Amino acid sequence: MELLSVPRRGSSAREYVYEALKKNIILLHLKPGQSITEQEIAEKFSVSRTPVREAFIRLAQEGLLETFPQRGTVVSLIDLERVDEARFMRRTLEKAVLRLACEAFPSELAFELRSNLALQEVCLEEKNFLRLFELDEEFHRLIYRGCKKERIWDLICQINADFRRIRVLKLSSGIRVGEVVEQHRRIAGIIFDRDPGRVEAILDEHLPQHDPDFERLREEYPEYFRQRG
């Protein structure tokens, strides 16, 4: 099992294992349906089983892990109903946040947005789609931070794990990646131009009510998705 490493940064073993596992699940290094055990994770991160067990409990509460009597602990499958709920929440909140950003946005964060967009272009050219996903998330975080709503973004990230995973799957499959970067450029332009009149249209495009690519991904990777009725 190959896992992405995460900087320790002085955090407790419990927090470190939780953050590292969550990142590996979100970025699909731990794939939906994959079995994991406390022992192997403890060995990977050179910690005791206690912080691993605590991390498993937190991730299960967030819907990222499930435990079954015969199979043990597995990474949860992607649930498209939860994806739709998360997308609805993102669209609703982000329209309000973008309108706030059009009223006032700190110049230093505007500079960071421009730098972020430049890095997205580099990742697009290099086909570094996992790094592009991280820049995508940081792009939106910067907007929330600029409106003093960063804690709302943190809450969104806690409850939209399936939406994040399917976006990683979409980007890593190379589906409409250039369109995503172009939409980010236009979102930034709305903020720089202070033009709230364009918010509705761009977010309906960036976070559509129905994304046909998600159904396409479910057909291509049926083993990653929860099947319903």
Automatic annotation (TrEMBL):
Residues 11-78 form the HTH gntR-type domain. GO terms for molecular function: DNA binding; DNA-binding transcription factor activity. The keyword Transcription regulation applies. Pfam families: FCD (PF07729), GntR (PF00392). Keywords: DNA-binding, Transcription, Transcription regulation. It comes from the Bacteria. Gene3D superfamilies: GntR ligand-binding domain-like, Winged helix-like DNA-binding domain superfamily/Winged helix DNA-binding domain. InterPro entries: GntR_C (IPR011711), TF_FadR/GntR_C (IPR008920), Tscrpt_reg_HTH_GntR (IPR000524), WH-like_DNA-bd_sf (IPR036388), WH_DNA-bd_sf (IPR036390). This is GntR family transcriptional regulator. The lineage of its organism: Bacteria, Pseudomonadati, Atribacterota, Atribacteria, Atribacterales.
